[in-house]
Amino acid sequence: MTATATEAPRGTAARSASAARPAPAVTPQPMRDAFARAVTASMDADPRLTVVLADISTDRFAAAAARHPGRVVNVGIREQLQIGVAGGLALTGLRPVVHTFSSFLVERPFEQVKLDLGHQGAGAVLAGIGASYDYAGAGRTHMAPGDVALLDTLPGWTVHVPGHADEADRLVRAALPGDGRVYVRLSEYGNAAPRPVGSGLLPVRTGSPRASGVVVAVGPMLDRVLAATEGLDVTVAYTATPRPFDRAGLNRLVASVGGADVLTVEPYLAGTSAHEVAAALGDRRHRQRALGVSREAELRKYGSAEDHDRAHGLDVEGIARSARDFFLV
Amino acid sequence: MTTTALRRYADLPALVGLMTGDEKHRAAAESTLDVLWVLYDRVLRVSPETADHPDRDRFLLSKGHGPAAYYAVLAAKGFLSVADLRSWTRFDSPLGHHPDRVLVPGAEIGSGSLGHGLGLAVGTALGLRAQGRTEPRVVVLVGDAELDEGSNHEAIAAAARLGLGAVTAVVVDNRSATHGWPGGIAARFEQEGWTAQTVWGRDHDALAAAFSVRGPRTPHAVIARVQPKE
Predict the structure, then answer these.
(1) Cα B12–chain centre separation
(2) B66-125, pLDDT tens digit by residue?
(3) Euclidean distance between the first and the last CA atom of chain B, given in angstroms as a whole number
(4) Do A91 and B108 touch (CB under 8 A)?
(5) Which among B118, B121, B123 has the least Cβ separation from residue A86?
(6) Where are the alpha helices (DSSP H) in B47-149?
(7) pTM given for the model
(8) Burial tier of B9 (Cβ tally within 10 Å: 0-12, 13-18, 19+)
(9) Continuous segment of H or E residues that includes residue A203
(10) Residue A114 burial by CB count (10 A; 0-12/13-18/19+): exposed, middle or buried?
C-alpha cells in the first residue's frame, strides 16, 4: 500500500501535465487489427485475395479461413516458403496478402522477395508488424529498422507507413485490388488523428514565405514532429507513403518557403530517404538532415518503444533538439 | 517456321549445338535432356498455343543452371525459334545462362539462384486449387545438389501436409551434392508424406511411367538418376 500511496501523486501529476498539452505525441494504434479487418472484409467481394500466413496472427484470420477455405494458407514457421507461395499464387492470377513480423517478412526471406516476387514479375501485398522496435522487450531479433532501406534496393515497390489505424485501413483496401508489389509497415504506435493518404506530401503546418525549410514526417512520426517544431518557422509535411517518394511535391514545398533546408523524420533507419530528398532537390542548393533509427551501433536494450524513441532521438525532445540545431544556424 | 525441321528427340543435340557450339556429344550429356524431352513430349499438356491458358500444365525449371537442354526442348516444341537459340546470351537475347520467364516464351519461372522452384510450385498448386482448377499439374525440376538449399525443405515438408497432389518434383540426380544424401533422396520425400520413385533418367519409358503417377492429395517425387557429374 505504501507503494500505491507514493505513486498516486506522481500519476496525478503526470496526468495533469499531459492534459495541459494539446495532444499526446504518441498514440496507441491497433493497425494489425485494422489490416486484418480490411482484408477479411474485402475477401467476400474479391475472389483473388489469398492470405498467406506463417503462424503469426492466425487468430485474426480464423473467421476468414472458415469462410474462404483455400484462400487463407498458413505454411507454418517457414518464411522462405511464405514468399515463394505468394509468388506462385500470383503466377496463377491470385492476389497474395502476406503477413508476419517485418523482420521475418522482408529481412529473413529477402532473396525470395527479390526473386519470387520482383524477378518473376509477380505482385503481392506484404503487411509487416513490429516496425523498428514496437516489441522492444523482444529485442533485436524482432526489430526491423532496415526494412524500408532493404526494399529500396529493389525496383517497383510501393511502401506505406500508416500513422493511424484508419490510414492503415484505407491504404490496405486501396492496395488489395491491384497487381503491384506493396509493403505496408504496420505499427502499434502512431498519431492521434488520421490524415488524408495517397496523395503525396501533405502540408500539415505551413511556414511563412521566409521559413527556414521543410520537415518531412513519415507515418507515426507526425504528432511528435508537430510538437517538436512548434516554435519554429518551418513547413511540416506528412506522408504515409514514402515510396514512391513525392519528389515533385517536396520540390514545390521547398520553393514556397525561404530556405532550402529539409529535415526528414522517419520511423526506420536514419537517412533511408536521403537519396530521394537529394534527387527531389537536385535543381537547387540545399541542406538536409535525416532523423531515424541510428545506424551507428546495435542497441542491445529492451524496455519499451518509448525508451527506444528516446535512445534514437525520436522522442519530442530529441527531435526538437535536432530541429533547432539544424534550422537555427 | 524455321523450327519445323527440328522437332524430334534426335534433333536436340543440333539445337543445343546452335547455342553451345558443335560439341554434340556434350549436348547429349546434358543431365536434364531426357527428363525434359519426356515431359514436353509425353507428359505435360501445354503447347505454344496454350502457353497462357489457365488450365495448362506448369513446368517450373528450378535448377536454372545449364539451360541449353531446356531451350532446345522448348525450340523443338515450337516455343522458341532457331534465331532465338542462335542469339543465346547476347545482350538482346531472350536466352541467358539462367532463364528469365519474362523473356523466354513458355518458361513459367525465372531461375538461377537455387532453391526457389519448389516454393513457387507449392504456391502455384495452392493457387490452382483455390480457383477450382483441379486438372493442371505442376511439375518442378530440381537438382540433387540444389536440394542442399534449405528453402527446398520448407516446401517439401509443407507440400504433402497441404495435400498438394498436383505437385510432381523431379530430382535430376547426377551425384553432384558435395555432402551427398545418405539414405537416398527418395527417402527425404517419403518421410515428408510424398510418394517417390527412383528411375534411370535416360530411360524414356521408365520416366513416362514414373510421371504418370498422380495422387489426389499426395505429391509425387521422381528421382531421375543420370551419370555422375565428372
Answers:
(1) 16
(2) 899 999 999 999 999 999 999 999 999 999 999 999 999 999 999 999 999 999 999 999
(3) 37
(4) yes
(5) B123
(6) 68-76, 82-86, 117-130
(7) 0.94
(8) middle
(9) strand A202-205
(10) middle
Residue B28 C-alpha cell reads as: 547429349
Cα B151 from Cα B118, distance rounded (Å): 8
B162/A89 Cβ within 8 A: no
- Evaluate whether A303 touches A277 at the Cβ level (below 8 Å): no
Question: With a cut of 0.95, is the ipTM above it?
Answer: yes
CB contact burial A258-272 (16+ within 10 A = b; e otherwise): ebbbbbbbbbbbbbb
Which three three-digit cell numbers place residue B55? Answer: 488450365
pLDDT confidence of residue B120: 98
Q: Please report the number of interchain residue pairs, chain A to chain B, with beta-carbon separation below 8 angstroms.
A: 101
Least Cα distance to B75 among B99, B48, B49, B53 occurs for B48
d(CA A59, CA A36) in angstroms, rounded, equals 10
Q: What amino acid is encoded at A207 in this protein?
A: G
Grid cell 472484409 in the structure block, residue? A41
SS3 category, B41 = helix
Do A126 and A98 contact (CB within 8 A), yes or no?
yes
**Which residue shows C-alpha cell 491504404?**
A171
Exposed e or buried b for every residue in B27-64, given b needs 16+ CB within 10 A? Answer: bebbbbbbbbbbbbbebbebeeeeeeeeebbbbbbbbb
- Give per-residue pLDDT as tens, A48-92: 999 999 999 999 999 999 999 999 999 999 999 999 999 999 999
* φ, ψ (nearest 5 deg) of residue B174: -110, 25
Residues of chain B contacting residue A71, judged by C-beta atoms under 8 Å apart: 130
* Domains parsed from chain B with CATH numbers: 1-30+67-96 (no CATH), 32-63+114-225 (3.40.50.970)
User: What is Dmax (Cα atoms) for chain B?
Assistant: 48
Euclidean distance between CA atoms A46 and B111, whole angstroms: 31
Q: Report the C-alpha gap between A146 and A151 in whole angstroms.
A: 9
Nearest in space to B76 (alpha carbons), one of B98, B47, B101, B52: B47
Residues in chain A closer than 8 A to B122 (CB atoms): 81, 84-85, 88
DSSP β-ladder status, A234-239 and A202-205: antiparallel
Q: Is A177 left (phi over 0), alpha (psi -120 to 50) or beta?
A: alpha
What domains are defined for chain A?
A: 27-190 (3.40.50.970), 202-327 (3.40.50.920)
Q: Is A218 in contact with A266 (CB distance < 8 Å)?
A: yes
Calculate how close chain A gets to B111, using CA atoms only, in Å: 8
